[in-house]
Amino acid sequence: MATKEQIAKEQRIASGVKEILEFRGFKITTINENDEFMDVYAEKIGEDDEKKTALARFPKNPQVGVKTIRVLGKLQAEEEIDEALLIAEAPLTHYAKKESVKLGIEIISSSNPLFNIFDHEVVPHHNKLTNKEIRSFLINYQIAKHQIPKILETDPAVKAIQAKPGDVLRIVRNPIMGEQGAYYRVVIKSTSRLQLTDVSKKKKKTTTKKTATKKVTKKTETKAKAKPAEKKVAEKKTATKKTETKAKAKPAKKKVAEKKTATKKTEAKAKAKPAEKKAAAKKK
Predict the structure, then answer these.
(1) Model pTM score
(2) How far is residue 215 from each of residues 201, 208, 218, 221, 226, measured CA to CA in Å?
C-alpha cells in the first residue's frame, strides 16, 4: 500500500507533467497507470497542420537505469510517438543518460523547476513564436535574427516550453512587478558563450603566432641579407689563401727548376769531356 506522502508526490508529479505538455501546446488525451509506470499521452496540431504526439512516462521506481530508457524507446518506436519524456526522481547514471541521448528521449527531473514554474507570480509567461510571426517581427523592427537579445537553452522557462536554439520567444512582462508590455529573446546554445571565449583565445594565439612568424621572417631576411656579405668575405679569404699558397709554391718551383738546369749542365759537361779528349788525341 502506498503511503499518503507517496500518493501526494505522484499527484504533484502528474499535475506537473500535464502542465509541461500544455505549455508545449499539447492536449492530454489518455492517462495509463499501473504499479510500475504512469504514462500521459498527448497530441497537438503543428504549424504545417500535422498531428504530433507526445508521451510522458513517470516510473514509480526512483532508480532509473538503461533498461527503463530502452523500454520507453521501444514503445516510442512501436507507437510512432514524436516526443518522449521521462520524469525521473533520482539522478540518472552515465550510461542511462548516454542511452537517452541516443534514443532522443528527454529526461526531466521531478525536482526540476519546470514543474509549476509559470504558476509563480514572479515568473513571466513565455510564448514561442511561429515562423510567420518571426518573419513579421523582423520586418517590423528591421533587424536580423542575430540582433535579438539572447536567452540560453538551459533556462528553466525555455526547457518548460521546449524551445530550441534559433526559436524566438515572446516574454510577457509581469504587471505585479510593475512591468508592462513584452520583450523578445532568441534561444541560443549553452556552449555559445564558451565558444566566444574560445574564439577570443584562438585570436590571441593566432596573433602571437603571427608575431612569432614575423620575427622568424625578419631573422631569415637579415640572415639572407648577411649571406652575400659573408660570401664576399669568404671569397676574399679564399683568394688571399690561394695567392699565399701560390707565393709559397713559387720558391719551391724555382728551386726545382734550378736543380733541373744544374743536372742538365752537368750531364752536358759529362758528355762533352769524352769528345774533347778525342779531339785532343787527334791533334797529337
Answers:
(1) 0.53
(2) 21, 11, 5, 10, 16
